[in-house]
User: Fold these one by one.
Assistant:
Number 1:
Amino acid sequence: MKMDVLLGLQWGDEGKGKVVDVLAPNYNIVARFQGGPNAGHTLEFDGNKHVLHQIPSGIFRNSIKNVIGNGVVLDPVIFRNEIKKLDPFNINFKDNLWISNKAQLILPTHRLLDAAYEKSKGNKKIGSTLKGIGPTYQDKIARLGLRVGDIFYANFKEKYQKLVDAHKTILEFYQHDYDLEEAEKTFFEAVEYLKTFNVSSTEYLINNELKAGKSVLAEGAQGSLLDVDFGSYPFVTSSNTMTAGVCTGLGVAPNSIQKVYGIFKAYCTRVGSGPFPTELFDEDGKELQKVGNEFGATTGRPRRCGWLDIPALQYVIMINGVTELFMMKADVLSGFKKIKVCTQYELEDGTITDEFPYDIVDSEVKPIYEELEGWNCSLDNINSFEDMPTPLKNYIQYIEEKLGVPINLVSVGPDRTQTILR
Ligand code: GDP
Ligand code: IMO
Ligand code: MG
């Protein structure tokens, strides 16, 4: 019985899709436990690049079951488009994709509400991906939501209409213009399509497999600094992106969780609004964005870039119980002679702290940096930790000492093969 978790430790886009694809052959099940089509997980192999939004990143590995858990919010239209894109790859969805009947459905009006709420916030907007994530989770908690299992019942359209009527009242209040006709038609076609997939109480599937000695990898979406409780609230997503979310998002007991893989970029990025203490507005920031090709996999928006933030990582390692670290995109730092790392923060009143501040949104949090030597050479032909240039070894050791957790994987390029394991 083995349940491991892989989580992003920053503001998302750490490279979770790539690493889940690399690790998947070691597992029997890969399961998404939260989030929805706000995620964009990129996988590269055999010269192809795939971006998955709702389908777990184990889907290209034969004989692995992929589960979309109850903690996920699912858009049937985006789901259908994703499946269609995978057509050429002969994936046997009947055997290797399972959807929880308790996952919440994203309706076309949830997306409209997302847009209306964002517009009403003016320059305080979250920078949402506008996929309807927040409004769908809102309805879940308000006990108004529709679940995937509901689509099989004769009264589904009635239930749908009741919720949509309530949404229309809110949209009117926000004076948000819309035309639903086409979107509704597409939605109901996609719902019919969704009915042809395995929909079940996936908590039984997962627990039965665990009992039978099989292994499960939970694939996080977003990152811990976007967690609705512990992230930079209110500039967060609407789910628990942390280890604890695995239990509620899949229906597994806390004591079934063993390893927690925390994944981070060798620097830091953020897409959308919200605080980012180590954000760079200079040439270094532009260089990170250019070399790292830092543009959102879901929205195409440029990602804000900055140096690694140790206090933020220490914080999320604590709340997640991270047991192993994976460092991504080390190759992006290859051209830098000097690399900075934020080790503490200075608050507005002059206090120096190691803690992730509560009021990170409204008060100024200044990073205090230490500078390390860059390796200033390509990592293209490096295949082992031993072969790494000394400054990279030093960078890894420095981070490990600060974080107290070993770095067991270093990624040096987007392809499956560009992965160095310890
Ligand atoms: P996710 O949301 O955590 O799965 O990450 P994204 O797919 O949104 O963003 C990560 C981006 O970095 C993708 O374009 C990946 O192909 C790419 N990537 C992943 N690992 C590496 C790496 O080690 N080096 C480089 N240069 N790119 C990487
Ligand atoms: P993956 O899984 C990066 C950000 C949005 C916005 C905030 C709220 O690919 O790492 P939402 O649509 O959830 O209401 O947006 O969260 N965000 C992400 N940023 N990667 C993601 O997912 C994200 N999912 C949401 O940009 O700032
Ligand atoms: Mg992403």
Number 2:
Amino acid sequence: MPHQPQGVLILDFGAQYTQLIARRVREARVFCEVVPCSISVEEIRTKAPVGIILSGGPASVLDADAPHVDASLYALGIPILGICYGMQLTAYTLGGTVEKAAEREYGRVPVTFDTTCPLCTGMKRESVMWMSHTYHVTKAPEGFTSVAHSKNCAFCAMANPEKRIYCVQFHPEVTHSEEGQMILQNFLYQVCGCTGDWTMTAFIDQAIASIRERVGENGRVMLGLSGGVDSSVAAALISRAIGDRLTCVYVDHGFMRKGETESVREVFTRQFPVSLIICDARKRFLDKVAGVSDPETKRKIIGAEFVACFADEARKLENVTFLAQGTIYPDVIESGSVKGSAVIKSHHNVGGLPDDVAQRFTGGVVEPLRMLFKDEVRKVGEELGLPREMVWRQPFPGPGLAIRVIGDITEEKLLTVRESDAILREEIAAAGLDRDVNQYFTVLTNTRTVGVMGDERTHDFVLAIRAVTTDDFMTVDWARLPYELLARISARIVNEVPHVNRIVYDITTKPPATVEWE
Ligand code: XMP
């Protein structure tokens, strides 16, 4: 069994930034796990972390129902870093004083550090940190001294080097904190003695070994392959572990982009040979959505049909007792708590599997990417050698092109949106912008306008181009694509794609618009 990486535990007190702390720790090449703050000291001891981070949280330690920790946590001898609420909790639990501040501190605050403290090694004496708090520590517990202060706060950071307990009032995990990452790295490397053994190469070896152990010599696994990053990387990893004892089911609903089905077929027959079932359900789906123009009804029909196709294939397979899924870490953790053990994921397009199918998977669910963030999944994909387009594939909705044909769907309209999308993708890639623009596609509007071609008047469709930049898809901006590029795309589409005689560029942010048109 390959060597397990050192791990840090992050106790989650419900802060909006907890996932960010975890990502920063991973960026520092240290494995970490987010666990609910209600975890017992005994469980922590069993997990034997090299360090513990107490996250921020919305409560005040002085509230009657505020989450607390057992004081014995601080006697485990494991280094601790308390962040914001985690600092106040530490002060409160160990006999310091926490009070409501005269002024709420919010935003970028200049902080002066004692750079002789191991937590602050290598930092500037003055550094701007991101604060967001109403309560603060006014008296440190015994054994602690202040190692950072600001104009309004005497204890921006406090330390008990002997016990290896450190606390910060600010948020080192957010990028607004100038030297925040250095604080986290100092905690991990100077205080916890981490070696930086969390690499994707190590992860791959370990994941392959644990898949083999879990599935056994003869076990068989089924996976729904969507062509998306997560399921493709999961398939590649499992294929490396157990070869064609992995059966991948790819449902071709006919709403995929140009070339996607072919690329899935190529990759998972040649590069990562698995037992690949491509279920050609194009006609079945098209018949189901014929005449339907309401977006939500389209989604529901496609979702249900997708499950039905997958279930039909699953019922045909003999002796396949494990179901694999491309679940990733953000699916597993949620603020303030960690979701329980794996259940068969009900993807928002898929819904749960029928009971008789779920019951076939007596071995349970295999989720090799369960502990990874999206950027780590991409790194794994790259290291495994999956094609770049697959690893860096932009998000693509489950119902696919069906929600990019506004109104009722026909084969001809699908062809228009698929061909125009291919041109758009080609041109954006040729302009070297495919990594800068987070999502881009064409939409076949339901509007026809008059145009002229040669001597003839035409009455054809308006096609819209949508291209957005965003960090999280909750809010987006429209991409400022160069005019020359837009001109090239427009000229190519009207020349090469039938039934389009006018092109518009969507210049709306989200909110108020959404990314997709339907
Ligand atoms: P909206 O349009 O809601 O989209 O701003 C935000 C992100 O979600 C994607 N999206 C979907 N993904 N099934 C999916 O799997 C859907 O029904 C769906 N609708 C929107 C969208 O492409 C964007 O990335």
Number 3:
Amino acid sequence: MTVIRTRVAIVGAGPAGLLLSHLLADAGIESVIVDSRTREQIETTIRAGILEQGTVDLLVASGASTRVLTDGNRHDGIELRFAGEGHRIDFPSLTGRSVWLYPQHEVLKDLVATRLAAGQDLRFGVRVDAVDDAASDRPRVIGVDADGQRVEIEAEFVVGADGSRSVVRQTLGGSAAGSFREYPFAWFGILCEAPPSSEELIYSNSDAGFALISQRSSTVQRMYFQCDPEADPDALSEAQIWDELQARVPGTTLHEGPIFQRDVLRFRSFVAGELRRGRVALIGDAAHTVPPTGAKGMNLAVADVVLLDIALRALLLSGDEGPIDAFAETAARRIWKAQHFSWWMTSMLHRTPDASDFDRRRQLGELRSIIDSDAGRTYLAEAYTGWPFETRLG
Ligand code: DHB
């Protein structure tokens, strides 16, 4: 059996776990990260592509990724399309902020490279089975490494950054404990080789259902359309996929091209019942899941990291427990704002299978209330570009 001793044991080498180790290292706090996946799996999983202003500022200022500025693209607005017309929401004039289109797996490549270059103890292929002694001040992570050897990590604090199927969450009142809702639709997502069909992202509410026209680069595009959660991603031909997408953005002719990746993304809103117990805390998807509309998932994970970094510095450098005691409540405020925003964008833009004529017209009235009002557009822009991060805790 391998026994590792460290200050902070981080389960999960996604954006939350890696960024936390990076910020802690800057304060001289050593950590060990384990993940059940391989480095290749982590770096190639396709996720969302929008980074909030604050996320970008933090990645750049902390030295975690500067590539976002050279390889990413700043977006100063989005288009909301409904009833056959497009309406631009201009972020800088409403909030002084923007967002960046830079895919999550690129953020991950940068973070993994930065951490490994700094000598981070980062172990792939380690399956975590349990967290023991979670109530003590020496919690232990128990797992099995890539060679089948038992591994034990003894730490002063354990962080569950292990995604929506978090094992660490099971030590905090059970893996399912929390608040959640399901949705009667999902997204059919594609990556294709084609030039962009629009300068900015289009979020379209149409009679045929929702579509999102996003981008990856000048030659690769990401697009989604609302589908049944049970849909089989391989059941449609490329021509059928283009027909579905095209029908949902009337007024725009999409640039079509070979589709080289397709997936069905199920929706769920979830917040864990406990975000921290004793010396164990949850961050990122382990703590909460949002539906993808509005791209809050990774940005919310980064906001958790900012708070936990403040709390762990206070706890581990000065023995001050005030900030960690305030962590869950403070994190929950932003989490529930983001839950609301993600639910709201989703419900305002999608067609619910059993929607009545009233429901449909009310939804269009809601969209019109947003675009016709400075306050409405400003709320959307503030939430989309991201509320400022907390700088203090407790
Ligand atoms: C993307 C995903 C989203 O959920 C979103 O709101 C915007 C963009 C994307 O993958 O590009």
Number 4:
Amino acid sequence: MPLTAKGPLKRSTRTFWTLLAILLPIVLGTVILYLQAQRTLLRSSLETAEEAIEQFDQMLDHSDSAARALLPLAGQDCDDARQLTLREQVTRRPLVRSTNLVWRNNNYCSSYLGSYAAVLNPQDYVDGRLRLMDGNHLTPDTPLLVYRLTDGEGAALAAINGYHPTNILRMLSRFAQLQLQVGQHWLSSDGQVRDGNAPLAAVASQQLTSSRYPYSVNAGFAQGSLWQHMKNQYPALFGLLIFLGATAGALAHWLQKRAISPRHELQRALEAGEFIPYFQPVVRGDTLQWAGIEVLMRWQHPREGLVRPDLFIPFAEHTGLIVPMTRSLLEQTREALAPCAKDFIDGFHIAINITARHCQDLQLLQDCREFLAGFEPGKVTLVLELTERQLIEPTEITQQLFSALHELGVMIAIDDFGTGHSSLGYLRKFNVDYLKIDQSFVAMIGADALSLHILDSIIELSLKLDLRIVAEGIETAEQRDYLTAKGVQFLQGYLFGRPMPSAEFVAAVVRH
Ligand code: C2E
Ligand code: CA
Ligand code: CA
């Protein structure tokens, strides 16, 4: 039945949407946080590199000042006075560890050793100006940054102990990775000089070159720093994302549950106009001419196809949706039949099934009025079929309703007669016009004598009460003949016509 059917596909689709609703805010939010973290780390490594350049430039400015002061002495003798000048620069200039004089690539005078002889290869200096060494013969394990200033054949050298650049790298790279690259050598914050190019950082790698001295700086972060950064910086936002995901999931779950709840499904179907009328002819017992029709509801379900009313009417009654459903059925019936009403015999009966719930206020009267307004006066007779299984409480409102209906010319039929407990008083109170003998009694025709006796009693009773009778469920000629012989005025059943959609009915009405 369509109201409760939940196939495995539907369940998996529901789970899919719920999971999607949970994951979507979490994934999207994480992507946004990821991009944000990436931007933050890129900016941070750029700032670190800029700061490092500034510090290294300042450091080399001291070497430059020392070398500039000594350069005019290059080529002069390395006597005590010169040595003293060299030492003076070491003492006066911060960070400068030693100074040398060079003439024609001969390193001949040292602040430390005095007169001295060593060959200097200008190729060892990047741009002829800067050299990063992992040590010299005096301090083989201590890196050294040597600055060279030349003028013609003379040159002055000012060396800085590797401790200082290492210290700058270490101070600035508390969270980042930072290296000083000078030509084909690089220094890292562990104080080691290595050959080649420093490896690029795995995350947010930045490379900056000094505009004043021939070196560059590499900054960046190690593998996994991005997630680490996100974990440290956005714990509250992650909590919020999980909360949003859970809320969205719960909302999606609730909405889907609501969408598949039987009540919501009926409401949806009503709004989508899926409840449509089928018409079954009711014929006169004597002439077998079409005297009217019964309007029967069908649910044109988009997936399940045409659904029988006994599968959804009880639930529609339970929820109260039967009232607007019946109203819609009346409107559709009026629209379908008004154009062909000229082919009807006068007073053509249009019977519609009404539940007890529909009779609790005067709205039904208005619905009937609107229906009849669609036809020429006297062309059709509206019959309300009330099942005997649900008796209507006689209250002031119902009394008022039924007398007003009577005045309007609307007739009342008791449906499924013989299966309930209506009394003579009940039939009188509601001004009943017709009794519809239930098809279970009609089915007794041709069976045993006792069953037939019950049917005969019902027919006799109806005639005595001066009520007109409709017998329903006539499928055989034997049933038809028996009932007409008993004086039953109206007959309904597959023998005369099955319930049919309006287009088919409109086409058939002309023939009858
Ligand atoms: P009902 O009012 O007693 O309607 C007659 C039922 O008998 C219809 O079933 C009709 O198709 C079926 N029928 C007619 N002739 C024959 C026949 O020769 N043989 C057999 N075996 N059946 C025959 P349907 O259309 O399935 O409706 C079932 C019930 O659903 C109706 O019984 C009525 O109680 C309810 N129903 C249908 N439409 C509405 C509606 O618009 N409002 C309300 N409240 N109830 C409705
Ligand atoms: Ca009926
Ligand atoms: Ca019936």
